[in-house]
Design goal:
- The protein is α/β, with parallel strands linked by helices.
- It contains 13 helices and seven strands.
- The strands form two sheets. It has a five-stranded parallel beta sheet with strand order 2-1-3-4-5. Strands 6-7 form a two-stranded antiparallel ribbon.
- The longest helix has 27 residues.
- It is globular, with a radius of gyration of 21 Å.
Length: 301
Amino acid sequence: MKLFLKKILWFSLLVLGLLFIGELVVRSIETPYRYKADWLRENGDKVKILVLGSSHTYYGIIPSVLGDSVFNLANISQTPEYDLALLKTFHSDMPNLETVIVPISYFTFRDPALEDMDHGLCVQYKVGMGLPLHSDFSLYNLCITDFKSYAGRLRNLIMPQELNICDTLGFGLGFDLAHREPNWKEKAVDRAHDLTQILPGRPEKVENVIKELVSYCKEKNIELIFITTPVITEFSSAIDRKQYEEMREKIRGLRENCNMKYYDFFMSDNFKDEDFHDSDHLSDIGARKLSLMLRDSLSNQ
C-alpha cells in the first residue's frame, strides 16, 4: 500500500512539474496581447491616436492608413470595461496621446461581461498585458486555466499554425477576401440573431462605463471619438429593432450630455461586397476604405 501511494505521489509530482514547465513555456510565447503591451511600453511616446474596441475596429481600422502616430489596441470581444482599463493602464506610456477612437456596436449595450463570455480572453489580458482588473492570485493569472488555449499553443510549437495575429501597429490580419467563406452572406441572418440578446443585458452598466471613459478623456484633455462600423444589408435587415433603437438612444444621450463626436457607418451604402469579410466585419479592402474615410473626417475637423 505504501509503495502504491509513493508511486501515486511521484506520478502526481511529475504531472505537476510538466504542467508548471508548460505554464512557463506558454507564458513566453508572444501573442497579439503581449505584443501590443510591450510595443506601447517601448514606443508609446509615438502614439497620438489610439484605437480601442472589439473585433470591429481590430479588423476595421488600419493605423498606417489612418495617419501618422496611430496604434490599434483593439482586441477580439473587447468590452468597454477593458477599453477603459487599457487606456488607464497605458496612458502613462503615451504622453503625446491626443485622440481615442472607440466603437459602439449593435451588441455593445447587451453583451455580458467578458468574464461571463470568454474566460480565456481574460487570461490573455492578465497574463499577456498585465492588466490590473484581476488579482495576481486569481485564476486569470494562470494560462493553464484556459486549457484549450494552453494546449493549443504548446501544440503550435510542434505543428505551427496561423493563430490570431496583428501587424506591427496592432491591426488584425486574416480577414482578407482570400479567407472569406464562400457562403458568407447566407450566414448574415444567423449572425444578427446571435448578436441579439433576448435578455435585457446590462445597458446601464455599460453606459456608466462609457461615461467614465468620456470623463477620463475629458480630464486628460483627450479627444474621444465613437464610431459604428458598417454591416451588410442582410445583417441590418435581420437585427432586432428594439435592441438597435436602444443602442441609438444611448448614443443620443451620450452625445447630448458629453458632447462627443460620433461617426455612424452602420447602414452606409459606401461599402460593397468586396469590403466585407463577413456580414459585420470588414475585409482588408473595406478596412482601408473606412480608415481613409476616418482620416478625411479627422483632417476636416
